[in-house]
Inverse folding.
């Protein structure tokens, strides 16, 4: 790797292997596999169990992998995730219709967005160009908060 360039995956794996304690010669399959994307070992089993169950709930209600058969709008899934987030925020841990944690529904909803995007069935109907405006408004809101606190302290 040259100075200033991004390391390759092979460089990163070589670096990790160099830092690892000495072990007997490893299986060639393990060495090759380490250079591939991690699919499961980095995800907690508990998260996977709830994610899978939320997907099963959705499959019963709407059909398995339905977003691969018909296009879906990103905004519909963002709205669904936000409804679950707001329920969590308000103190409700479990959805009353499915008896599953809202967090599981949020994970499933986000995974559907990622999968639909990869499958070409996601309609990106977001309003583009507002991220900068949102950051600006958030800065103004914080500025107003500071002014209120300073005024109250004076």
């Amino acid at each position: 790797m040259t100075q200033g360039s991004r390391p390759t995956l092979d460089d990163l794996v070589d670096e990790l292997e160099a830092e690892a304690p000495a072990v007997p010669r490893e299986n060639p399959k393990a060495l090759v596999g380490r250079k591939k994307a991690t699919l499961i070992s980095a995800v907690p089993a508990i998260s996977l169990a709830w994610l899978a169950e939320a997907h099963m709930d959705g499959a019963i209600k709407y059909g398995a992998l339905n977003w691969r058969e018909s296009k879906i709008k990103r905004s519909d899934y963002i709205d669904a995730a936000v409804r679950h987030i707001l329920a969590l925020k308000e103190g409700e841990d479990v959805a009353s219709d499915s008896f599953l944690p809202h967090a599981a529904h949020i994970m499933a909803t986000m995974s559907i967005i990622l999968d639909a995007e990869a499958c070409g069935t996601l309609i990106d109907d977001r309003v583009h160009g507002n991220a900068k405006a949102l950051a600006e408004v958030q800065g103004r809101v914080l500025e107003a908060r500071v002014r209120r606190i300073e005024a109250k302290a004076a």
Summary: Strands lie at 72-73, 122-123.
